[in-house]
Amino acid sequence: MIARRRVLGPSAAALAAAGALLVVTVLAGSPAASGASPHIIWLSPRGFVTGQNIAGGHLTLSSPSGDEEHVTTDAAGDSQWVSYPLQISNQLRIKQVITCYKVDNATSYISQVRLTRSKIPPTATVVYDDPADLTSTGGACRTGMMVSPISVSGAITLSLRLKFSSTTHAIDIGAIGIVTTGSP
Fold this sequence. Notes:
By secondary structure, the protein is mostly beta strands. The longest helix has 18 residues, at about 10-30. The strands form two sheets. Strands 1, 3, 4, 6, 9, 10 and 12 form a seven-stranded antiparallel β-sheet that branches. A five-stranded antiparallel β-sheet has the order 2-5-11-7-8, with no helix packed on it. It has helices at about 10-30, 30-35; strands spanning about 40-45, 50-55, 60, 70-75, 75-85, 90-105, 110-120, 125-130, 140-145, 150, 155-165, 170-180. It has one domain: Jelly Rolls (Sandwich), CATH 2.60.120.260. The termini are far apart.
C-alpha cells in the first residue's frame, strides 16, 4: 500500500502575513518613504551652554553621571536659559522637538522649548516655541508640538527656559530628539 500525503497550500493567515510583509517592503523602498519619512536625530545633553539669565543669577551645568546635564542656579526666578547650537544639514526640515528631563521638585521646571534661526547678528527669529511646562519628578521624554516643517537655513539654536522656585532645586536634561524630514 502506498502512503499518500496531502500537501496543503499556505493558510489564509500565512498569505496575509506574506502580503503585509510585501507591502511593508515595497513602501519602505519607495522614494516617498525614504525622502519624506520623519526620523529623529538624538543629541547628547552635554552640548548645552548657559544663556541669558533674566533672574540675575548664574546657572551651573554639571554632569554627575555623565549622561545628563544637571542644572542649578544661585538665584530663584524665571527666564533662566540654556542653549544648544544645533549642527543639522540644511537639507532637513525640523517638525518637532523631544525633550527628556527630570526635575527635583515640580515647582522648578522647564517652562519653554524654543528654536531660533539666525544669520546676521544680532537678530534671531523664533521658529518653534513650545510653552508647555515640563514638571516630571520621575523623569520623562516629552514629544513637543508638531509644526509645519522648519527649514534649516542659517544657524539653529535650541533653547530651554528654566524656572527655579528655589536655589536648592535642580533640573536634569537628558537626550534631546530633533524630529526631521528630508534627506541628510
